[in-house]
Amino acid sequence: MVSGAGTVALLRRYPVKSLSGEDLDELYVDARGVAADRLWAVRDPDGKLGSGKSSRRFRKMDGLLELAATYDGEVPVIVLPDGNTVRGDDESVHRALSVHVGRDVRLAREDDVPHFDDGPVHVVTTSALAAVAAAHGSPVDVRHFRPNVVLDTGRTPGFPEDDWIGRRLLVGEAELEVVAPMPRCVMVTMPQVGVAGERHLLHTVTDLHDTDFGVVAEVRRPGRIAHGDTAHLGG
After folding, report:
1. β-strand 85-87 against 106-109: which pairing, if any?
2. Predicted structure pTM score
3. What residues does each domain of the chain span?
4. DSSP secondary structure code for residue 91 in this structure
5. Do residues 30 and 219 touch, judged by C-beta distance below 8 A?
6. Rounded mean pLDDT of 14-31?
7. Cβ pair 105, 98 in contact under 8 A
8. Looking at domain 3-13+21-33+117-233, which CATH architecture does it have?
């Protein structure tokens, strides 16, 4: 059985992990996830990846969300807070990043282990965003949640994506499988380029939906997804 799941309202990619990203009119997904998404990261000398939190793989680095990244072809271009830019293929990028975060770091391309936290493709719905905004008492910018795909689910209330776990999501040329809810961390509260901080946002999500917002999907059939594509749920 196939049923409607919404329309693609926003597509985003993050060239460098934990930096602000870019809006796209279309993107391509393959087995790894969104092409070139989080393909680069800021790394400490011990190999840990710069993040908004610390864990076995990640190291909390203040200031990363003050930076934005886009692509020029296959090269990431980092926008500094003063508006200056530095290319990822320029050796000065390492010094610029180190000065900004106040520690010795390097910009590094992904090796054998993907840079993703929880999975390759992150999908959220406008219904869930509306539910969180209502509980929060003010509008919430979806960029706080750093999605790849935002689906406009119209007037469907609550969190329709909860019922998508284990099902196929057919959108554009691609087939995704929704595998898990997306757990949230303190990163959703932090200001980033163009987005003010929301100090209590994680509390709102926790109280309303047990820290989860959005879903993680894996790619079962590669293909392009474009703004305005209709998404359908399969079995």
Report:
1. unpaired
2. 0.94
3. 3-13+21-33+117-233, 36-109
4. T
5. yes
6. 96
7. yes
8. Beta Barrel (2.40)
